[in-house]
Amino acid sequence: MRKINKIFIHHSASNFGDAKLIEKWHKERGFSTIGYHYIILNGYHTAEDYKKEKRKEEEVGAVEMGLDVSKAGIHVKDNNSDSIGICLIHNDVPYMKKQLEGFRNLTAQIAMIYGIKSDNILGHYEVDKNKPLCPSLDMNVERAIIKELMR
């Protein structure tokens, strides 16, 4: 098993999607598979769902598996070998409370399992200045909330 030292938080830059769709997008970009380990859903799987406002409320905040955590992701240049990537489905629609709760609970669980300190839970923008909006969250606030969940 590889050593996990960090968790990186991303957003999909789309208002819809799931692990299957992100894998398709990543393959279209030349990746061999999906780059993230976990996807936090917002209830919209397709563009059509989003356009017709057909949100699956029971799936808001649900976690889908992406890449197996035993494998290095493809989500943060030069930081994939020792990290886990979590992607929230999000673009310009505000995050929903249940989606944030799902992300925070998952992140806290992963951090506790791997012994990761809250300081090593990072937004993509914190290591890649070319991604200033990813994940569109104030990571200082998120780290504080997740740290409390880890107690």
Query: Can you tell me the number of structural domains?
Result: 1
| N→C terminal distance | 26 Å
Radius of gyration: 14 Å
Q: Please bin the fraction of helical residues.
A: 25-40%
CATH topological fold name: Lysozyme-like
Name of the CATH first level = Alpha Beta
Give the overall shape, derived from the CA principal axes: globular
Description:
The protein is an alpha/beta fold and 151 residues long. The protein has one domain (8-115, 122-149): Lysozyme-like, CATH 3.40.80.10. The protein has helices at residues 19-28, 47-51, 97-114, 139-149, and strands at residues 6-11, 38-40, 63-65, 83-88, 121-123. A five-stranded mixed β-sheet has the order 3-2-4-1-5, covered by helices on one side. Helix 3 packs across helix 4 (139-149). The protein is globular.
Features:
five-stranded mixed sheet; 5 strands; Lysozyme-like; globular; alpha/beta; 4 helices; about 150 residues
Task: Describe the structure concisely.
The chain has 151 residues and is of the alpha/beta class. It contains four helices and five strands; from the N terminus they run E-H-E-H-E-E-H-E-H.
